[in-house]
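#dry-run=false #mode=assembly
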Amino acid sequence: VSNVIDTEKRVAAEAAAELIEDGMTVGLGTGSTVAFLLPALAKRGLRTRCVATSEETERIGRGLGLPIESFEELDHLDIAIDGADQVAPDGWLVKGGGGAHTREKIVAASADRFVVIADSSKPVERISAPIPLELFPFGVAATLHRIGEARLRGGAARSPDGGMIADYHGEVRDPSALAGLLSATPGVIDHGLFEPEMVTDILIGRGEAVERIDL
Ligand code: 5RP
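#status=ok
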């Protein structure tokens, strides 16, 4: 099974790499699907300026010769490509399985085109818990208490920006309402619900084929 899933991640990632053009500014996501994107992009030998959503992506990307810079100077990106944990039919996503969702959302929101790449296990009928959270350390117990049904992730997981990684384990009746509630909760730096308006392309690997869902 894992071989099929890896093939699906690879074909989706390779299709996404083809969308990048010479001279583009590029946001690079995080995770095992993006791990197939980085060599596919490097192989194209394009002139790009890239930003990475995690230290892991930065390290692997640099090792492959991709020009990765800090995300402080560029004021917008032409394209960003990233994986997802859940993809709903209406385009809502859950991200942050790797705890990188805050940086990933900043990068996705900055891009003209945001391309999601995923294997066939990621499409879901409806969004459900867990929903990743990044929480400000100050007052974290009170923030968790206020959210209810949320727990810190094991191993004292932290983002590179110092936030504590947690997950919301309650009901998800309406992703939009939950996203609004979490965003409005003091102490929540960001959550892993990505709204459809942010997403332009979804590429799902199915065996050796790529299913394109345009939003
Ligand atoms: C990391 C993410 C990843 O994109 C998401 O977890 C999917 O990962 P993978 O490609 O390994 O299945 O949001 O924070």
